[in-house]
């Protein structure tokens, strides 16, 4: 559990390092699938005052197991994603500027090039706004359920990111660190896609065969990028 | 009074830290409501030469109570805002780049998402330019009066920011520190709103129920964000 | 002369500090009107290797008086500006990103707000491209002559900046330091004007009376900004 | 060979210094034409863990001569460029944000000003996407062949940069360091060209005589910029 808190602390501290958060607008969690416990950033605590001990341990029923602080207010979203996506081990939420601009615009991010295709297979979706009933009810839980529903018949490992309309992005990965990595990729991809549309308003997504090539160069049985 | 000067000095030093000022283009004040005195940055003094002792103490009649320097030339605006908004304790003025771009464009900033709604309830208004008479007269005082007039029948605590057309933003809060916090929020929100309109020129404001949810998640009797 | 070299060295080092230069793409000079000598950055020398001793001393006939290096290739432009503008003491040339984007676009920068009006009175002009004859001849000298001609019947002290079409900006001031200050103002103003036009494509310049107010609040007999 | 590895290591470390890479998204190589060996960054190794010893030595048949790591997955592209461009000594590939945005937009970068003309003669081309057959085959090698084919009847020394559609830029130079320098120029030029088109959608390329002037001021027998 100390190890989990340390890992989640370190992953959280990467958010300001990569310029993905202003103030406390972001959080990382990581789960230990053997116990079903996950650690998450406390709510509204400044990054420069954060310590590993401040991380809050939760279970997948939303009960606090350990920690002096309240967990992030987005905790119920994390719970639903861990329940729906059995192969993931870490989740990130931020209000990073470019990804949030796309979320506010209500548009998914088309795959315009290999930077995107290297990590995410196809368009990064923007899920609809919650209804008034969903918002007035268990808002954060419903956010998780909506994302889970969207990916019900889609490959959440191939597209480890989503935009929530009028809100911002969630990303995930095999652990908190990889989820942060995907949050950085998403922000970079969101920035270049917006600029690319300004440079050429008629731009089309990259050809499917190029997307396939780059994605599978890094993923799956025939991957040959890196040192494996 | 020493404490007040120190608090105002520290709040002023946050402006360059958060990238909100170039040269001397900004100022923070904070008021002690028990005495009616407020401390404010001196006019045109470089941030890297500023000390707590340089802060100027003023009263709400615009008289200098203490200090070797002239107060910020925007002091009469601060005076009018303190008189009109009894619940505030701090005021910030900057020429921060994105907020000023909206002010120059003469447009209020629509609420496109939860980052905005978390701190500011509804559109951030852009008040009209002053008339020739108002400009040629007591310009800075009239700037304050115009803002006060705009908020006469509106909730200045729920919308702690305003854009002055062809000029730039003012923000406020319970003290100087919170006013700076709101200035950072405003700049971030202004940036994302501009990008969001480029990504989707037909974008509409976030649904009212989502704005309500996020605002009241952080404000009022039923708030549940953070550690309270 | 040592003092002049030191002042020019320090002013040059402000260019990378304020993010106005990439590599060696900029230069500052300052003149001693009593001798008619001016010091200028050597051509193509890296900023992080520069020392005060490297500055080159020139006279207004373009003769090198002292220095082991060649002066900036833009030296003949500086000469013409010093000859045409008797009240200036320093000149800056950069390829700073936003100002150069306006220069490439071939447009002057309208005065959209008080940030601009505080330092520069009215539109910052973009002078025409040189003709083939002017380019093939004494190109750098002709650049200076063109700027001088533009300002022949205009107030070069009230508008201490110009854009050269398809090239970049020159700014000036009472000394090298003030010329750098104006280069920073220009870049900030150029950035906000571009963003402002994106936010509101129908935007109009700030009302004349507001431009007057801010400019004369800082300049001339009735100025009241700052500590004088 | 140690010297080569050191030079390539240092050139690679300039990429994060100049903000051209996120994570491991870039690589520099440099060739020793006397042996035909070149050194290149290993694939997928973090920049902050890189040492000179980690550089991989390759020959122009694509055989690894020395090194514990796999070379960059883009190595076959480098091989083809070294074979096609006998006068170059260094190559850079990045996914730098502005250049990649143009590549994704599928547009070459017009020469809008002297910043561009100082280093690159005319439009920076964007070569077509590879066909499905070229992608499914020897993708990285075919990328190099396509670039080589484009420059078959063009001057690759006068235009030391290319954009690969839906992918990103390659630049080259007399060694790795100059290739990095050109990558920085390209990014700056790409940024200003995009902004310039936003400021003036009808903008035209700089007059040919101005492009000639600036290019030949720095290149060829009559160059007079700098200290030579």
From TrEMBL, chains A, B, C, D:
Domain Class II aldolase/adducin N-terminal: 6-194
Catalytic reaction(s) noted: L-ribulose 5-phosphate = D-xylulose 5-phosphate
GO molecular function: L-ribulose-phosphate 4-epimerase activity
Keywords: Isomerase, Metal-binding, Zinc
UniProt entry tagged with the keyword Metal-binding: yes
SUPFAM superfamilies the record matches: AraD/HMP-PK domain-like
EC numbers, comma separated: 5.1.3.4
SMART domains: Aldolase_II (SM01007)
Domain of life, per lineage: Bacteria
One matching Pfam family: Aldolase_II
Cofactor: Zn(2+)
Homology family: Belongs to the aldolase class II family. AraD/FucA subfamily.
Stated name of the protein: L-ribulose-5-phosphate 4-epimerase
The organism of origin for this protein: Blautia celeris
